[in-house]
Amino acid sequence: MSKPLGFALVGCGMIARFHAKAILEIPGARVAALVSRTPKNAEGLIAETGIPPCPVFATLDEALAAPGVDAVVITTPSGAHLEPAVAAAKAGKHVVVEKPLEISAERCDRIIEACETYGVKLCTIFPSRFADANVTLKAAVDAGRFGRLTLGETTCKWWRSQAYYDEGGWKGTQALDGGGAMMNQAIHNVDLLLWMMGDVASACGFAATLAHERIEVEDTAAAVLRFRSGAIGVIQATTSVHPGYPKTIAVHGDRGSAVIEQEDVLRWDFSPETPDDAAVRAKFAAKVGASGGAADPKAISHEYHRRQLADFVEAVRDNRPPRVDGREGRKAVAVIRAIYESNRSGRAIEMRD
Alpha helices of 118-182 — where are they, by DSSP H? Predict the structure, then answer.
């Protein structure tokens, strides 16, 4: 059996804990190193996650030179993904980047180009694509169950306190957050919508800061998309809706409709029906307690991170693209930047390839 794939976690904040727990549960993978300018943060991560003790480095360069490091997981603030990703690629290490891939399409492109140039795998973390209900919905789309797609909808009506933005020093800033409710929280929803509905032709949006102080980004946003297929899309994204509600994704067409709230299928209606439809409705009947981070960013499971990172490990072993590569990760960022430009300019923005 080949040796486990060794990951260096770059950054030891909250989201790094999800990655550490996920890697711990993946056969053929291990946490080989941590990178943190604050040793106490690394020590806390080891204690909280139960990963075996590993070297802790103050700089990425030290970690990249360490034995047993085959890949990096970048969990730094969003606007600080580019530099460590490029450095890792140049060092021949495979690259996993927590969402968003970066805060502009141009910065995403530089990461993608570096990984392609140096022949390493690149993965953007969008764990919602690995949830069973969303996988089932995507299969129905691909099978043509909806007929002609007409409308896609997604909501991320979440709540974050003022304290959430005040702690850490980077949340709510343009330079490191890159945006607010749309870029940070609802990007998962945007990615799902594009995955289901296809490429976007144009975007129109509004954004405002209504419930928080001392932030440079929006806490309330809404957008309308026109897909290249001709279908229409609607996005709602907030951190201003108290107490916060589970996220939703809905797909509609002239032969069917489906609505998913978190992991629960609320509607699954097709013409014609198939014997499998009743089974889908029964399997994904409402569950209790699936907040999905609606009010607390810590209140999510690491299970879908585990599934995505397991796919990444297999992609490295089998020399194939990960299911969510850099180009897939770029799409949501480009659409969100177009929404921001529409809000600024007061006009619809045509998407470029």
Answer: 132-142, 162-166
